[in-house]
Automatic annotation (TrEMBL):
SUPFAM superfamilies, alphabetized: F-box domain
Domain of life assignment: Eukaryota
Cited NCBIfam families: F_box_assoc_1 (TIGR01640)
Name listed for the protein in its UniProt record: F-box domain-containing protein
InterPro entries registered for this protein in UniProt: F-box-assoc_dom_typ1, F-box-assoc_interact_dom, F-box-like_dom_sf, F-box_dom, SCF_F-box_component
Organism: Pisum sativum (Garden pea)
Record domain F-box: where: 22-62
Listed Pfam families: F-box, FBA_1
Length: 395
């Protein structure tokens, strides 16, 4: 005798629905697409979400995806207040009239020292900004590392290099050693009477000590041309790079000196062969679309940019931009260095700063049109750094 098929048991009407669970891999993928602020808010959802905030693999994944949304760290000096404000490059390219918000979260206060300090931005790397602070009335310096996205500030690391009544000056650069996953600060000590670098040291955040390294083989351009405060060490893929003068007292040959932060050894890179003159406006080096670039003023008529297609290979220097001053609407005799900051993905718009005239220029390569940005705040353009929002920590 055939029995009718049994019907599935009905769930009681008052029963709770079965919990929905998502694979951990899917959660990681979703959270890595969020901005830093949203990820931090998700920390309270579960222990798993909270653990991601300090997970190195997740932090790196999130950072790599944040690279698609580049920012510039703008340094403002409104009302004698030192403020670093991350500003979206995409918004900058749209060029709306804007006044940066007076957000207290971006103010660098003197938390650790009662005296008024002078702050300088040494560099930006992986979402961390390295700050140098010092007092005008004593010989102490402080290094600190700040993440504007998470609002996390490291403790200040003080040191004394004895500046008072000393004919030496110091320059600092900041980068990341990929081989040891450690942030490093390089200090160069310049003797103004001897016109040479007399000491080079590296501070590794991993072991919190200064170590002497092989002395710098040339004189960084920034040590000679103090007035413009450009040409600091440029970070690129585990190296710091300076425009420098080799054999300063005799032949005055300009080169790029590259320091590998892993091996802590130098490499000398000659400039493009067509650059055989010393222009009255300082040349500069920068990084555009992950290429080391060299730019200079050509015969008082054009601004020229070369890129090194294969890093470290001098034969790979390639000229890829030559822009007339007429197109930029500037007079070559009334300007300081032009510093390139960013080239859009499609290669259509170049962002560069005119240091002496204290303005930033957006130049559209397709229609050869230049416009000035419409930010009303007073910006220290020579201190502007590329920046990517991340959850990077110095700890």
């Amino acid at each position: 005798m055939n029995h009718p098929p049994s019907k599935p048991a009905r769930r009681p009407t008052n029963a709770s629905p079965s919990p929905v669970t998502f694979p951990s891999d899917l959660i990681v993928e979703v959270l890595s697409l969020l901005d830093v602020k949203s990820v931090m808010r998700m920390r309270c959802v579960s222990k798993f979400c909270n653990s991601l905030y300090t997970d190195h693999i997740f932090v790196k994944l999130h950072f790599n995806r944040s690279l698609q949304e580049p920012h510039l760290a703008l340094v403002t000096t409104d009302y004698d207040t030192f403020r670093i404000v991350p500003y979206s490059v995409s918004n900058l390219l749209e060029n709306p009239p804007i006044t940066l918000a007076d957000d207290p979260c971006y103010v660098i206060d003197n938390y650790f020292y009662p005296l008024d300090l002078v702050h300088q931005v040494i560099g930006s790397c992986n979402g961390l900004i390295c700050l140098l602070s010092y007092s005008d009335i004593d010989s102490f310096f402080w290094l600190s590392f700040w993440n504007p996205s998470t609002r996390a500030m490291s403790k200040q690391l003080g040191f004394n290099f004895g500046l008072l009544n000393d004919p030496t000056s110091f320059k600092f650069s900041f980068g990341y050693d990929n081989s040891t996953n450690s942030y490093k600060v390089v200090m160069l000590k310049f003797h103004s009477d001897k016109l040479m670098i007399v000491e080079a040291k590296v501070f590794s955040v991993a072991d919190n000590v200064w170590r002497e390294i092989q002395n710098f083989p040339a004189v960084p351009f920034q040590m000679i041309e103090f007035r413009h405060q450009v040409n600091n060490g440029v970070y690129l893929n585990g190296t710091l790079n300076w425009l420098a003068i080799f054999d300063f007292k005799v032949t005055y040959v300009e080169v790029v000196i590259s320091l590998d932060l892993g091996t802590e050894t130098y490499k000398q890179i000659h400039l493009p062969p067509s650059f055989d003159e010393k222009p009255y406006v300082d040349p500069t080096i920068s990084v555009l679309m992950n290429y080391l670039c060299f730019s200079y003023h050509f015969q008082d008529t054009h601004f020229v940019i070369w890129k090194m297609v294969e890093f470290g290979v001098e034969e790979s220097w390639t000229q890829f931009l030559k822009i007339s001053y007429e197109r930029l609407h500037i007079h070559p005799y009334s300007m300081g260095p032009l510093v390139p900051f960013y080239l859009s993905k499609n290669g259509e718009t170049l962002i560069l700063a005119n240091i002496l005239q204290d303005q930033m220029i957006l130049y559209n390569l397709r229609d050869n049109r230049a416009v000035r940005t419409r930010i009303t705040n007073k910006i220290s353009w020579f201190s502007v750094k590329s920046y990517v929002k991340s959850m990077a920590s110095i700890c």
